[in-house]
Design goal:
Length: 88
């Protein structure tokens, strides 16, 4: 039996030492990151809420520092303004 191995990269540390950990309660595939250099963490392959991704977070923070309103930040990054407020 040959099974196709799909490499999933951890969105937090970029490691590809990841393993499947079954679906969560919203039926999304959960992965474990096995990068020993970092605290062990889980992630979901496709985050519904993009604001959880570090790159989006950084962008929100940058925009907040530059004085972009949370409403505008949310519109530009396509996240809810409440999410923007929660991060900043
Ligand atoms: Zn990781």
């Amino acid at each position: 039996m040959v099974s196709k191995i799909v490499k999933v990269t951890c969105p937090f540390c970029g490691s590809d030492k990841t393993s499947k950990n079954g679906p969560n309660k919203t039926k999304k595939q959960v992965y474990n990151c096995n990068n020993s250099q970092y605290t062990h963490h889980n992630f979901i392959e496709q985050y519904t809420n993009k604001a959880y991704l570090p790159e989006i977070r950084n962008q929100v923070l940058k925009m907040t520092i530059n004085g972009t309103g949370t409403r505008a930040t949310g519109r530009i990054l396509d996240i809810s303004k409440d999410t923007g407020t929660a991060i900043s």
